Amino acid sequence: MTGVRLLAIITTLSCVFLVSTSFLNLGRGINGGTNCAGCTLVVGLLEQLADVHNETIVKALERVCLMLPAKLQTPCDVFSEFIGPIILELITQDSSPDNACRTLRFCNDDGGRQCVLFKRTQKGYSKPHSTISKFLKKYPYFVSILHEISQTGDPKICELPGIKDICLWLDDVFNRYDPAVDLDSDGFSIAETLRGTSWRGRDCDDSNHSRHPGARAIDSDTSYDSNCNGIYGKDPTTGKAYEDEFCGQSQPKGIAVLGDSVSAHFHLPEEWFDSQKLSEDVFKDIVFILENEIDWPELSTATGHVNNSWPNIVHGKMDSIYQRLYERNRCNYGDYQNIAVNVFDIWKKQGGSGWQLIEPVDGFHTNQVAQALTAQVLWDNMLKNHADFLGPVNPFNDKITQIFGNQTRLSSNYF
Ligand SMILES: *[C@@H]1O[C@H](CO)[C@@H](O)[C@H](O)[C@H]1NC(C)=O
Ligand SMILES: *[C@@H]1O[C@H](CO)[C@@H](O)[C@H](O)[C@H]1NC(C)=O
Ligand SMILES: *[C@@H]1O[C@H](CO)[C@@H](O)[C@H](O)[C@H]1NC(C)=O
Ligand SMILES: *[C@@H]1O[C@H](CO)[C@@H](O)[C@H](O)[C@H]1NC(C)=O
Ligand SMILES: [Ca+2]
Ligand SMILES: [Ca+2]
């Protein structure tokens, strides 16, 4: 049974929703929430595929499955063997995707209402519980897993065999806010994904933590490139260091972006969920994209730095503040950092939970606690890497306080 691998692919995508929301410990939503939405999309896509290509579901799935990169294949097989027969039987019974997922218990009728994504078919809507039980009895292994899961809450797609491995991998990817490859621990990497160069400028020497993008040029970079802008050495005609000659008076400026709403560029390509647009090409880079948490920092407003090489799933060109800084002044090369969610990491290391940094009503934007923490992280980063922007601590501060108190006399705005 290899036919239902596509299901695993798409369910992988659903996992992404799950893992990305579960790392914030957000609520699961009603009617089964993201589990239900994921399942319904999967089954709906299966039905469409068979329809569009006028072939058996198994055939269609086999074809699509071949589009997947190797890394996702084994878990797909495991999952296919587990759930394939169940889904096939459900589809053969002509139930709508909503009902199929209700039968599988990924969707439920919270408060007596059912939320549906697809048109209700006459057949199969509002199946009585006895029919569902009879159906599930044929699949004791599935039921035993459902039962196990329901001890801890609702059935979760991430608990299913095969998908579990994918979710574990994603969990690992999604919980990492520092580069996976960083031999000298300076926060900069030579690998692209896993919080690497897609997120922050490339480390030009991963064995020396004094050399990284945004570092201060040491000895004017006469013999080594310590700020990783690619500029070093001496001009043989003037005898001056190139860093001094070309960059010294140029006021080079990098960009560091914090705060999820500004920097995270999370979105799922519609081509992954549309049976008519599925092709090998739209899945070609799915591993890379997942390893970047579907956040596309390399194409984002703030830190974008590569041409859009996915015209089939990302529409439009890249333009970014970093790109413009670079065009304005070549000395700014590589000096970008997309470090938004590090605030969550720091908070969690202090024993907090992600949801404590989110406004409870809109469920997305950061609250005052997060704003303050972001300011602290931003300040520390400035202090460490760009103290020259801030100017020195004024040695006369104490004297000023001595003479002028808190200076409120001169200002109508107390703070
Ligand atoms: C779909 O496939 C069947 C069997 O292969 C064939 O008889 C039928 O004509 C096809 N329908 C269309 C619309 O191509
Ligand atoms: C590391 O890089 C800095 C700056 O380029 C340099 O001064 C230092 O000697 C280097 N250290 C080693 C061990 O190479
Ligand atoms: C993007 O494409 C343009 C034109 O093809 C090319 O000149 C430029 O070097 C590319 N930029 C990057 C970062 O690859
Ligand atoms: C500043 O000083 C004034 C006058 O001494 C005092 O009334 C006020 O409470 C002080 N404000 C703050 C924020 O400490
Ligand atoms: Ca380094
Ligand atoms: Ca340099």
From TrEMBL:
<feature type="signal peptide">
    <location>
        <begin position="1"/>
        <end position="29"/>
    </location>
</feature>
<keyword id="KW-0732">Signal</keyword>
<dbReference type="InterPro" id="IPR048593">
    <property type="entry name" value="AOAH_Saposin_N"/>
</dbReference>
<dbReference type="Pfam" id="PF20825">
    <property type="entry name" value="Saposin"/>
</dbReference>
<dbReference type="GO" id="GO:0009104">
    <property type="term" value="P:lipopolysaccharide catabolic process"/>
</dbReference>
<dbReference type="InterPro" id="IPR008139">
    <property type="entry name" value="SaposinB_dom"/>
</dbReference>
<dbReference type="InterPro" id="IPR011001">
    <property type="entry name" value="Saposin-like"/>
</dbReference>
<dbReference type="GO" id="GO:0050528">
    <property type="term" value="F:acyloxyacyl hydrolase activity"/>
</dbReference>
<keyword id="KW-1015">Disulfide bond</keyword>
<dbReference type="GO" id="GO:0005509">
    <property type="term" value="F:calcium ion binding"/>
</dbReference>
<dbReference type="InterPro" id="IPR039676">
    <property type="entry name" value="AOAH"/>
</dbReference>
<protein>
    <recommendedName>
        <fullName>Saposin B-type domain-containing protein</fullName>
    </recommendedName>
</protein>
<feature type="domain" description="Saposin B-type">
    <location>
        <begin position="32"/>
        <end position="111"/>
    </location>
</feature>
